[in-house]
């Protein structure tokens, strides 16, 4: 019998005063993803392999490899996130809430909440989601 080590998930939730359709655009259109996350060749198509590209730093080439796992327009998006020998999964869930949207981002697959990768992701995603909200606010 094979057992896998338990993993930790990072979850960030926000209420945004924008409809799910606008947030979905910012999560799935490459040009908009450039503005809040990283340069990319993302397409919201199950099975599509893509890269997020950032400025390399010591011990990191600046590339995150991904594969789209799930696409439910305006509601749910999931993809793998592979970097530095670790693969995890990012899942976005959009739920209408009043005149806006409840946005839930879960990044699953960290070894522990004390790991450097978890702490780095928490810092990064908090910043990225703030930028996401700014980008969405500028959409027509």
UniProtKB/TrEMBL annotation:
Where is each Activator of Hsp90 ATPase homologue 1/2-like C-terminal domain found?
Answer: 18-136
Coiled-coil residue windows: none
Give any Pfam family that matches. AHSA1
Question: Which branch of life, at top level?
Answer: Bacteria
InterPro entries, per database record: ASHA1/2-like_C (IPR013538), START-like_dom_sf (IPR023393)
| Similarity remark | Belongs to the AHA1 family.
This chain belongs to which protein, by name?
SRPBCC domain-containing protein
- Species this chain originates from: Telmatobacter sp. DSM 110680
């Amino acid at each position: 019998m094979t057992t896998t080590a338990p993993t930790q998930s990072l979850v960030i939730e926000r209420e945004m005063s924008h409809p799910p359709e606008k947030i979905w655009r910012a999560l799935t259109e490459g040009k908009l993803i450039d503005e809040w996350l990283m340069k990319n060749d993302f397409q919201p198509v199950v099975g599509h392999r893509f890269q997020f590209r950032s400025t390399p730093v010591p011990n990191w080439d600046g590339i995150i490899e991904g594969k789209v796992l799930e696409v439910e327009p305006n509601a749910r998006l999931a993809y793998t996130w592979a970097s530095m020998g670790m693969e995890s999964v990012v899942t976005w869930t959009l739920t209408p809430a009043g005149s806006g949207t409840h946005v839930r981002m879960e990044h699953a697959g960290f070894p522990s909440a004390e790991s450097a990768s978890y702490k780095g992701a928490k810092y990064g995603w908090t910043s990225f989601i703030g930028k996401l909200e700014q980008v969405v606010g500028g959409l027509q």
